[in-house]
Fold:
Amino acid sequence: MEFKLEAHRIVSISLGKIYSARGQRGGLKLHKNLLVSLVLRSARQVYLSEPGCPPEPPPAACGPPEEEPPPCGTAWAAGEPPPPQDEAARGGPRLPGADCEGPRPRRCCCGCSCCCCAAAAGGGEANRADCATAGAAAPPPPHCPRKRSAGERGQAGSPVKKPRREVEEPPPPGEQEDMETGNVASLISIFGSSFSGLLSKEPKGRRRAPLDSGEAPTTTSPSPAEAAAEPGQICCDEPVLRTLNPWSTAIVAF
Amino acid sequence: MTECSARFADIISTVEFNHSGELLATGDKGGRVVIFQQEQENKTQSHSRGEYNVYSTFQSHEPEFDYLKSLEIEEKINKIRWLPQKNAAQFLLSTNDKTIKLWKISERDKRPEGYNLKEEDGRYRDPTTVTTLRVPVFRPMDLMVEASPRRIFANAHTYHINSISINSDYETYLSADDLRINLWHLEITDRSFNIVDIKPANMEELTEVITAAEFHPNSCNTFVYSSSKGTIRLCDMRASALCDRHSKLFEEPEDPSNRSFFSEIISSISDVKFSHSGRYMMTRDYLSVKIWDLNMENRPVETYQVHEYLRSKLCSLYENDCIFDKFECCWNGSDSIVMTGSYNNFFRMFDRNTKRDITLEASRENNKPRTVLKPRKVCASGKRKKDEISVDSLDFNKKILHTAWHPKENIIAVATTNNLYIFQDKMN
Structure:
């Protein structure tokens, strides 16, 4: 159990680092973020491989990121499953033309096929590397556009049409020649619901705040300007950015 | 030990002696380069070699903005490398994350005087007032040191440049970023050759990055690069144009008893340096320094623990980001001693012959100029002896990442966060 707690703590610290890496001057530090993602993967594996993976992390060890899953799960289960037709499209930005499910196992940075700690609503299907955040009968979309979970939470009850439209357009090929860290970004997508809690506040100047405060996710959704307006943070090409809505822009552009 | 500290302005990011040791260059986070020059030996003061004084200061890099990617490019100088001196002027390469510049540092101690058409202050004379002609002559003036950029090598790196290394042919040099290594000719700025590319087709499959690269000191076809996985690859440019396949792979199997969440991070190599002889190379990872014989790939020939007492603190060091600190290491001129930095402004030296090691501190409070440095000791656990420092009272904000050793003498330059210390051997 101790290992679990430590692993859990390390997961939350790592997520915090990835998040705060967004705002740093000089752009994304590939080396550091790669190392952080490796630690995150190890910790996650330990956490999940311990017997009796609880749907909710122990309260003592949790900060806001960990608090996300339950509310998120509730939101999902509350009857707002993501529109099924979005799934395939959501796979778009990451792997053009690939099915949302197919690439999942590869995309999951931990390479494991277990449910992630965000699997609040009774853990996703273990035979898939997708980390379902919600009992949604529909598969797991939150990781694709983490925007979705945040958006959902913020606007319970209103399907988010805007992302669907934007997401349908895959990024042009050859736009990979970039400081894009797809590996880590899909990591963020896996923890989508956890992560969006970090993004529910204005990112700037709030680097560690989400880990310290125990606030529940807010219902504010950032304007596109908010997410995109912080100089030095957008690391993707324009075409890729255009395909994502502000939420995912904020996450991807760390 | 003589001590001289200078420059409080900014965080020092690189330190490098030139080939003769007469000049010492430092780069800082603000994009500035400051060069120190050793005073000529004073015959009357036989107890010390010349001190280092500021010789030249110039702004090498400015912050830039990449509009295409909406990314700010830091002006921090990541590395400085000197070219061997060929004429009166000195040349060095300095690099930030994206652009390498060749600087010429030259002295001017004479100036022409006695122009016919110009006054001494530069104003032009009315030609009609000129009645006689004279020949301008050079007259001595106060020494002025000028730095001018001679070449700018830009736009060849998508990722952050971590190393530059000048080839022993003195015509080419390499620059390495996280995923690629490029080969340049010093005279040609509009193109470079890519010689190593480890970028995966799908970035999501990325598992390791290049952390340092260096040319062999004698073989102009050989270079090494280290990775975040703790491996070093030696490549021969004669084998193929793209050196993705290594000639040798140096890797030590991991000790399974030391496995932890952070094993991967602490095995990442932060610096690699060839010995002057070219027979060995040294690597620095988070906790140790390893010496490798180029003829033996499966394990290092020597391993020195820098601060093993930190192994039990890795989680805290991960939390405060110290585990990502990139320590450098250096050889002395005869390859008998290696040196590297640690925390609390400590730095460590390991004598390869006697197997003795020493921990010293670079701080003004504890060392008056011209006093001999006192060896320090860190108490890992248990009862702390007098004069020992416990691990928990180490200041992790005071880190020595950059050190340099004079190529010929026992003079070392040690950079704390924003001070430079120069120590030399006590001469009897």
Notes: Residues 30-49 of chain A form the longest helix (20 residues). Confidence is low (pLDDT under 50) at residues 55-183, 190-254 of chain A. The interface with chain B takes residues 6-7, 9-10, 13, 17, 25-27, 29-32, 34-35, 38-39, 42-43, 46, 94, 106-107, 109, 176-183, 186, 231-235, 237 of chain A (CB under 8 Å).
